[in-house]
Specification:
This protein is 2% helix and 51% strand. It has helices at residues 83-86, 306-311, and strands at residues 4-10, 16-17, 22-31, 35-37, 39-58, 61-82, 91-93, 96-105, 114-115, 119-130, 137-145, 161-167, 170-171, 174-175, 179-185, 189-190, 195-204, 210-224, 229-241, 249-258, 273-285, 292-300, 356-360, 366-367, 377-378, 382-383, 386-390, 404-405. The strands form eight sheets. Strands 2, 5, 6, 9, 10, 11 and 25 form a seven-stranded mixed β-sheet that branches. Strands 16-22-21-18-19 form a five-stranded mixed β-sheet, with no helix packed on it. The protein has a four-stranded antiparallel β-sheet with strand order 12-15-17-20, with no helix packed on it. Strand 18 (210-224) and strand 19 form a beta hairpin. The longest helix has 6 residues, at 306-311. Belongs to the arrestin family. Residues 175-305 form the Arrestin C-terminal-like domain. InterPro entries: Arrestin-like_C, Arrestin-like_N, Arrestin_C-like, Arrestin_domain-protein, Ig_E-set.
Length: 406
Amino acid sequence: MPKRNLQILIDNQKTVYFPGDTITGRVQFDVDEPLKVRSIVLKFVGWANVHWTEQRSSGKSSHTVHFRSHEDYFNFSHTLLSRATTGSDEIVLSPNSYTYPFSVTLPYNIPSSYEAYIGQVRYIFIVDVDIPWAFDIHAKHMITVMDPLDLNTIPNLESRAEKTDQKVLCCCCCASDPISAHVRLERQGYVPGEEIPFWAEINNQSNRTMSCSKARLLMSVSYHATSKTRIVQNYLTQIKHGEIEGGGTEAYVNEKLHIPVVPPSFLKNCRIIDIRYYVVITVDPSGLGFDLHVPVEVVIGSIPLRSVAQQHGLALPDRQAPIAPIANLPPPPPPYLGAPAGLYDDIAYPPALPQTTFAQSALGAHSTAEAGDTEHTYGNTNFAPVYTYYDWSKPSNNTTQFEIEG
């Protein structure tokens, strides 16, 4: 059985790139016996995809309905070896290790990489070795593209945000006095690695005991198919308090929710996947009754607010004037979602990211296997993007650290 090894190797083992960056590397193909080939072609593609299924019933039968949408950002192709490039009628590779260098430049205005079960934004190198009268050989290599969201380009993120809501519990046709909650944040813009300080007060004016209250950081993602939108919500971090007796109160005083490694808000430049984040205060009633939820939106970016960076001894360069305040973004559909697609396209590249670590997404790795993959497809079949993460405990040297954790 012949041994063949096909790899796509990126120079300096770099894994994170910004729109406009040039990527250099090489394709390495090792063969241990003579091999006829028609061609070796390298492709580099960028796309977003959404797909999920739902079961529908009609009488005694049921069927599966597929919901899909897709965006292509680019599709580059380069022939590394062919009869045209060699001038020969037949290409026979003798036992050896063959190297084919490549260089490609990313377009501007493309979204950050993203991985989830029903939606992805992927940037993939694919090399195909066309072998006559035999199975072709393929290799894949994925990279992370980080489209930076500079919090300083969105006005009002340094201003306070607060919200109050209440709910009346009903039991046996009798309405109780309301349960109310108020939450306050001193600012609205953050980066991964920061903690969100918040203050909240819960007032239980009913005669029932509330089982608990929770403060949580919510990631809410809307996936837009051609005919339907699906909303997926995940709580990233949580602080829980105990029971609140009837007539009692509960308070959160300068408590903090840690922001893990997550993609930036909005997933700008992607029209089919939208990301929002919220600090949510939840009150759970004991027994029957619906929870009270009080959400306050926060924006998670990749470049911190200048005032916050200065508190940690970091000097951000002057940047362009703000483009649009968050208050002017399209209103979020229920429960807490929105999609400011196409905004903030004029950020300068490469961005100045101070004291930044690039760490693996807290959302974890997902399978990258596709329908056409076979046992002759080389490369890792699981991938987790990496995003910016700020460790304010480290002394600043005002340099960008391309360090991968996890």
